[in-house]
Structure formats: structure tokens, C-alpha cells
Specification:
The complex is a heterodimer of chains A (126) and B (379).
Chain A (H helix, E strand, L loop, with lengths): L1 H19 L16 H4 L2 H9 L25 H10 L1 H9 L12 H12 L6
Chain B lengths: L2 H25 L9 H5 L20 H5 L29 E17 L2 E20 L2 E12 L1 E5 L3 E8 L2 E8 L13 H5 L8 E10 L2 E8 L13 E11 L3 E11 L3 E14 L3 E14 L5 E16 L2 E12 L6 E14 L2 E12 L5 E11 L1
The chains are: A mainly alpha (126), B mainly beta (379).
Chain lengths: 126, 379
Amino acid sequence: MRRRTWLVGGLVVALCGAFSACVAPKSERLSCDDVDPASGADFARIQALVSGEDKGCQDVGCHGGETQQEGLRLDTPDLVYDELSSRPDLFYGVLASGEMPEEKTAWSDEDLKLFRSWYCSGAFPP
Amino acid sequence: MKPEALRSTLLPPLRVAAVLLGLGLATFSSRTAHAYPQFVFKGYGDCNSCHHSPTGGGLPSRWGLESLNVSWGADSGPGWGNQDLTPDAANPYQPKVDLGLDVRLLPLLGTDGDATIGPTFIPMLAEVGGAVALGPWMFYGTITGKKQAGYLLTSREHWLKYQASSGLDVRLGRMVLPFGIRQPDHTEYVREDFEFDKYDQSYGLEVDFRGGAWSVFGNLFAGDLTGRPPERQERGAVVTVNRELGGAAALGISALASLSTARSRIAGSLFGRFGLGSSAYVLAEVAAQQFAAKDNDDTLATLAEYLRLGWFVRPEMDLYVEAGNRSYLDADGLTKTRAGLGLNWQLLRWFEFAPQLLAEARSDLPARMLALAQLHFVY
């Protein structure tokens, strides 16, 4: 029984160490600092970004109907709302860090502000 | 949405739920839930029998783990670090500790029209934690790695419980709000789309009452305080009332009202659990919620239904079919529908294998087929 206790304790320490080493910086966490709810809350503008060629993510190799990396599909406006509204912090994090969109133009500060404004005004559909 | 449209959308699932409730009432057996612990563990009877939390979910207690039916594995007795937290009559203030972990890994493969999804591997959950008891007091806490850009270390639950009497607890801290069916499967729409998903816990003050055939869980909550921005912190109240019916069936109702800087929210759920004979069961739920913006006329109303029919082929093997649907009533009828065939197989006391074939359709898109195989380690 004592072995089990040590096993669990060791796992706690190992996991804490592993996760503490790679905590996301504050700039990649979804916040309501610097938002513009009055003019920036329209989700249609975010859908246009996600669907666009420059900063979008539905080309071959990404999240279109033919590829669906990680099981994620973002090739219709409805799907974009469905996915982003259900996991906004995850999407904001990968966009703000530049991790996504892969091999495309990273979202600008204004783009990220648009995302924050939509989220902070209630994350309603367009 | 016009009243006629709302009525035509709401009535069909409500009729289905009414028929299900009637069938369940007519067919449930008189067997007590506690005569078959696997049923209790899978959602029947008193969830607190097997979990530290009075409302169920989270790490299982020693009794819960020891009561599992398993295919292989010898019994093990309690010791330091994994003790039964029930106070000893002779020495009620002797401290007791129960540590545990919950890890869920999900290999996935699927097709969507001409596209192939995966094979991919999703680390669903990696959580460690435990409970410490001292007389009528108990502290429960967990630490979880949350994927964001990199990983965050977060604590989904940490609360202090005072047991005022047998069946009456008061809790303070961060916890899962009591709403609807407490299903372990996160794929259920009522949990996922009503913001009771994996990381949707709130700080709150909760009273948990379980007496006779009734259980009542009431919670005043103030949001998660550290996770979401302050503008999206929801403050409000939620209450769930359960009524056991003859031991193998239960009906429940939940209601929630909350407010944040950005929006208000009301939600309700009607749910039931019914035993069918000695080894089968039905779970059913119909729930609705509405968000309304505070600064304009934006609204978002959601309706979700869930139905599951399960059969314990063996005491440790739950074979089930389930279906769920979710509709955004104010967003051009955006819907998601899922239907699945799966197995929850408790192979070892610390390992559950849960394969599932899942069909999922969204709005006007063709259905996609997924093959999942959840590997669930629990201690």
C-alpha cells in the first residue's frame, strides 16, 4: 500500500513540474483588456478572417472539409461559430501565440482585439 | 424567435421525454440501487456513495473504487494515502487521506465524406488530487493540466465540506455546479453546450441534502474567478432536485439563473434515470437555456436532448446506445446530432476501456463517422 502512495505522490510532483515548465504567457490568455464592444463584437468579421485565404485555416493541410486535422473542421460559418464559441480560450491562445494559422499570416493585434471584443460582449452568433 | 416556432421546436422533444418518463415509471424494477454498486457508479442512486463530491463526479472514494466490478484484479485494502474517509466512531478526529488520479486518453480515427480524420491521439484529461478528512470536515482538491498555447496548470475543483449531519453537507470553494445528469461522458450536449464542460467550474457556496427519496442541491456561485476574464464571470444560483422512485428510478429537475457584465442566462433541465429489469437502464434529459446580451438585443437560445439505453452484459461491462441533439434556436437552427454505440468495460480496478462508434452530423453537412477508444485510468 505504501508503494501506491509513493507512486501517486511521485506522479503529482512529476506532473506539477512538467506543467509548470510550460505555462502560457499572459498575452496568450483570453482577457477583456483593450476591447471595443461597440464596434468590434460582430462575429461575422471573425468568420471572414477564419475563412479568408491570408489568415484562414481551411486550406489543404488544415481544417477544411477534406483535411480536418485533429478532427477540427472550420469551412462553414456555422462551424466556425460552433467551434470558437465552445473553446474560445483555446483558440485565442493558439492564435495569439502565432501557433496557428500554420504557414499563414499571423493574426494582428487588431484581429486579436476583435476576437476579445466579441468574446467579452457575450460571444453571440452573428 | 416567434412563439409558434418556439412551440413547434420545443414540443417534439418534450413529448418524447414524457413518453420516456412514462415508460420508465411503468417498467422500473423494485431492486434497490445499492444492491448493485455498478449501477450506482454508472449514475443510479446516490452518487456520493462512490465519489467524494456529494453530487458525484470527480475522483472516486475508496468505497467507490473497491465496489467496482472488474474483469481481472484482486481486492485491495485501505492504507495511508488511500483510506476510507468515514470517521471512526472511537476516534472521529483522526485525520484520513485519500489520494487519487484520473487520466483519460483518446485515440481517434474517422471519416467525413472523402476526408479521413486521424489517426490522432487526444489527451483528454490528466488530473491528480485527493481528499483529507478530519471529523466532520473534508477538503477536496485536484490539479489538472489544461492545454492552451502550451499547458496551464489549473485546479478544477477545490472545496471545503462540513458535514452538518448525515445527508446534509455545506461546501465552499470551486466545484462543478449541480445541473442535469452527472454523466461521465463529456460528449453529452447538455454538459458541453450548457457550459458545464470539463473546465467549467465555479466558486460557490453549496448546500447538499440527501434524505429518504429526496435529494436537493442548491448553490450560490460567483464564477471561476481566476479562469475567465471578470467581464465573463457568471454570478447566480442553481438548484437541482432529485426524487428516487422505488430504488431503480429517479426523476430530477434543475434550474439556473445567472448574470455577468456581458450577458444574463437562464437554464433548466428535466431528466430521468430508469432501471429496466435487472441489468438495463435508460437515461433521458431535455434541457433549454437562453443567453441575453445586456447592452443590445442579442440572444442565444439552446435546446438539447439526450437519450441513452444501456445494458450491463456483465457486471463490469456496460454496452449502450445513445443519441443527443443540440439546436441553437436563434442562429438559423444550427444543430448538432450525435448517435453512438459504445462499451464501458472495467477491465481492472484502475483501468476502464471505453470504445465507441460515433456518428455526428452538423447542420446541413453530411454525417461523419468516428471510432474512439478511450483509455481511462483511475485510482
